[in-house]
Design brief:
The protein has 238 residues and is mainly alpha-helical. 50% of the residues lie in helices and 8% in strands. It has a 3-stranded antiparallel beta sheet. The termini are far apart.
């Protein structure tokens, strides 16, 4: 018998979907283009930069057939500036704006967002910032300037942002909501169980309060009816 699946995406599933993000590579040898289900891959001609999916970039990097250009936000200076904002503001840092399309009714999502390429904005974190950073640090640390510093700053950013999520949930009650603007995909997946448990607990507390209120109102009505009957008996005796 198959076990029921948990609601939402798990962290491994989020990491798998993140591999569709586009990153910039510098090929080390000439490679022909590919026709894939996700779209065509242009020919790779060194030393020209080319955006390709992350999964293909990691494969070529392991085969020593290409180098990966890290996105501008994955640098010590950019991460340090974002960390200072995160520690000084109760809000999360903004995400890159969506590109303008000719047809506004067509949804824009990865892999059509260029948030991890060499042309990405340097002062904002994309939706998959945590997964992309960890994958690039693991497979292409030699392509990242000061990888140890970048790894430390990413760890600090992760701790600060998760603390904000926990602090937002702690003040949650029946009249408030948790703003998740600017929260990344992996952060949502990792905190879903915690947030869901808090919401379920608050729902049970609210249901218990509602039951107690109804019981108290019923007792008050019964007490009022009993006092009213005693008053009528006194009037009849008089």
């Amino acid at each position: 018998m198959a076990l029921p699946l948990p609601p939402g995406l798990t962290p491994p599933e989020v990491a798998f979907l993140c591999e569709m993000e586009l990153v910039t590579v510098i090929p080390r040898q000439r490679l022909d283009g590919l026709q894939l289900l996700g779209g065509p891959i242009p020919p790779l001609n060194p030393p020209y930069r080319t955006p390709i999916p992350l999964w293909l970039a990691l494969l070529l990097k392991r085969q020593r057939r290409a180098n990966i250009l890290p996105p501008p936000w994955l640098s010590p200076s950019s991460l340090d500036a974002i960390l200072q904002y995160e520690t000084s503001s109760p809000q999360f840092s903004d995400q890159p704006p969506l590109p303008r399309t000719a047809n506004a009714s067509i949804p824009t999502s990865p892999p059509f967002l260029l948030d991890a390429t060499a042309d990405a904005p340097p002062d904002v974190l994309p939706y998959h910032w945590l997964e992309i950073g960890e994958m690039l640090l693991e497979a292409a640390s030699d392509d990242i300037p000061e990888p140890d510093t970048v790894r430390r700053l990413m760890r600090d950013l992760r701790e600060v942002r998760m603390a904000k999520i926990r602090a937002g949930v702690e003040v949650l009650d029946g009249a408030r909501e948790v703003r998740m603007n600017g929260v990344g995909a992996m952060e949502v997946a990792e905190s879903r169980a915690f947030i869901g448990g808090v919401v379920d607990g608050l729902r049970k507390i609210g249901a218990g309060k509602e039951t107690s209120r109804r019981e108290r109102e019923a007792e008050e009505r019964e007490s009022g009816m009993g006092r009213g009957g005693d008053d009528e008996d006194d009037d009849m005796d008089t």
